[in-house]
Amino acid sequence: MMKKSILIGALLCGMVSVGTAQSKGGQNDPKAKAVLDGVSKKFKSLTSVVANFILKIEGSNNNVSDTKKGTVYLKGAKYKVALDGQEIISDNKTSWTYTKDANEVTINTVDQSAGTMTPAKLFTNFYDKDYLYRLDAETTEKGKVLQNIELTPTDKSKSMFKVLVSIDKKNQTIARMKMFERNGNKVTYEITNFTPNASVNEATFTFDAKKYPGVEVVDLR
């Protein structure tokens, strides 16, 4: 079962969380910051986003242990992540995690602390305080020029020790985020379609139990 922490913990970053990846003296690369700031500025200018993605989990032996397709809906701080068999919804006050196999929804109060990772933060400035970052060489994939940035969490207790973020240079959007965990596992989010300013109904960001007959409600508020 895919855990909530894997879905929205950072990263992706987080969607985006050592070694030689750090710049000399632990300083951030200004070129990498310029690219990341561009992505953050672009995202903040949008009223909403709908993005399709592929989530791939690889074991320490590089074998793919799980692959899922999903869609994320974003509108300000509100979001919905829909995967095969699971939905995670938040209206920025309450969050609902629904598991299809168990037909169960868990309800929590949203943690408003600055350190809490959400899908929206993966597209904005999650990197500013918690990571060191440097710009790697550009690559071209499927006709797109990607700017690749390597991030290292400043908190060495994190389960992730490195994050690789690939930015679509033309559109200034995240194309892929790959997280390397200390246990050898790798988690990759690849954005397959990104629709800015999409029409998203406000009802998307609440859980309607009437649409899930017999659902078991676990209210932890």
This entry's quaternary arrangement is single chain
User: How many alpha or pi helices?
Assistant: 4
Runs in which pLDDT lies below 50 for 5 or more consecutive residues are 1-25
CATH architectural label: Clam
CATH superfamily, by name, is Lipoprotein localisation LolA/LolB/LppX
Strand percent estimate: 35-45%
User: What sequence of helices (H) and strands (E) makes up the elements?
Assistant: HHEEEEEEHHEEEEEEE
Categorize the overall geometry: globular
Number of domains: 1
Describe the protein's architecture and organization.
The protein is mainly β and about 220 residues long. It has a single domain, classed as outer membrane lipoprotein receptor (LolB), chain A. The two termini are about 25 Å apart. The N terminus is likely disordered.
